[in-house]
Amino acid sequence: MPTIDLEITSLREFNKMLHELAEGTNDTYFRVVNPRGRHAIAAGVDAPITVEIDGNAGYYCAGMNKRANIIINGSAGVGVAENMMSGRVHVKGDASASAGATGCGGLLVIDGNASSRCGISARGIDIVVKGSVGHMSAFMAQAGTLVVLGDTGDALGDSLYEARIFVRGKVNSLGSDCVEKQLREEHKEKLGKLLEDAGLAGEVDPSDFRRYGSGRTLYHFHMDNLEAY
Amino acid sequence: MCGIIGLFLKNKALEPELGTMLSGMLSTMCDRGPDSAGFAIYGAGDSGHVKLTVRAMSPAYDFASLTTRLSEAIGSPVSVEIRDSHGVFTLPESAEQAARHFIESLDEDVKVVGSGTRMEIYKEVGRPDAVAKRFHLENMAGSHGIAHTRMATESAVTTDGAHPFSTGRDQCLVHNGSLSNHNALRRQLKRKGLSFETENDTEVAAGYLTWRISQGDSLGDALKHSLDDLDGFYTFVVGTEDGFGVLRDPIACKPAVMAETDDYVAFGSEYRALAGLPGIGKAHVWEPKPATVYFWERH
Fold first, then answer.
1. Which of B253, B275, B289 sits opposite A36 (nearest CB)?
2. Which of A42, A173, B22, B201 could be joined to B179 by an S-S link, Cβ 3.0–4.6 Å?
């Protein structure tokens, strides 16, 4: 159960250590102290391990994560879990802009608020934000799910493709081509499962959410829009 | 890229530590802006006097001689505190215009870069931690200060292009971002009588705020108007005699994080800048909202 003090071990050494873990390693839990907002902590991990970071992380923490369970006992800077492939990232505090950007898979849970552009260009990642999200969240998101228990900023889901958005609070405004859709049983079931995975089983009722998705009027070529292209 | 920081002390007992705290914050932002740096410190001052920060091309400049000549020219006593290439002249408030005219009339490489009851501005080309050392920022005391580390994108790496830019008495501006309409706006402001010394976009933003304030706007109103008139990316931190303000453009691509405790309010481009502050572990840390003017002031 190694503890890594980033005031002693360099970040590059630590990340290299994680990248070089052999398959089936006995070191499956790493505790990181003194992150002090350093960038790219535990980025590019591809191993079924747990990394727990005590404090606030900087940019791109847990970026490109594959299989690992990464816990941040603090807040995270820009681009936490950006381009995540699989695994789980849990931010106990707030997340800055572009949380989970371009993520392909896995689950990102944010206990606090996420700033602007949460889930921008998502491609399969599931994101559960227990607080609120900032403007332009899920911008051009292609696949995956954004669940927001609080409110959203302006232009939610602008130019959305096929990602699904569930919001329990107030939506400040919808972006272009993002529309409210009926919340059917099948959606409630999927949402319930996701809330359960985020540790909210029994605490939150999926029926309290509204569902938003693409109006599908923008992303196909349309002769009438020629001037706008 | 650029890095900006701001620190406003609520606890007066910390005032002797301001420079140490600011220089620690500044050095963490070196890699966001390695080409030049500057800072404004709000230190001691009284209402009967004005402090003129005068920058020379070189630390070899004879500030002592300038002090004597300036005192003769304005007919009042003048004191100076010399820090490397900068000299801060304290003189009677009523003599400020005369002193400015005298310094401007000199055929020497000196210029007034800021004035105010309490504000002093220092800036130079070089790595920010080296710049801070040259001026002995760590020894400075005061109630608040703002600072900038520059990675030039819009104009040349020169001391004139470094921040902060003064926007008026006891007022200055640091900026992270780039303005896209600064050339047009510079032309408009020139027609209104303002003059500019660089091709720098931030100088235009500073000039814009100066102009709005001269038209009767409060600093807060001037910042709100800038949301309509400035096009581009920006996070601004403005220093005032009593505190500092923060404004991010509506898109808010440029980062900003703030921390508040019972002792201080701090601003950083990144959390790294705040990580060394005392009691940060228990501070309230948050991100300022886009298109929202924030102010922290002494009352």
1. B275
2. B201
Q: How far apart are CA A115 and CA B287, in angstroms?
A: 8
| CA–CA gap between residue A115 and residue B187 (Å, rounded) | 36
**CATH number corresponding to B3-44+126-297:** 3.60.20.10
**Given CB atoms, is A152 within the 8 Å cutoff of chain B?**
no
Helix/strand/coil percent split, chain A, to 5:
15, 30, 60
Domain boundaries, chain B: 3-44+126-297, 46-117
The CA distance from A83 to A111, in Å, is 20
pTM above 0.80?
yes
pLDDT tens-digit readout, A176-213: 999 999 999 999 999 999 999 999 999 999 999 999 99
- From A37, A93, A135, residue closest to B272, measured CB to CB: A37
Question: Which 3 state secondary structure label does DSSP give B85?
Answer: coil
Domains in chain A, please, with CATH?
A: 3-228 (2.160.20.60)
Residue of B nearest to A39 (CA): B272
Q: Which CATH number fits domain B46-117: 3.40.50.150, 3.30.70.330, 3.40.140.10, 3.30.365.10?
A: 3.30.70.330
Q: Does A58 touch chain B (CB under 8 A)?
A: yes
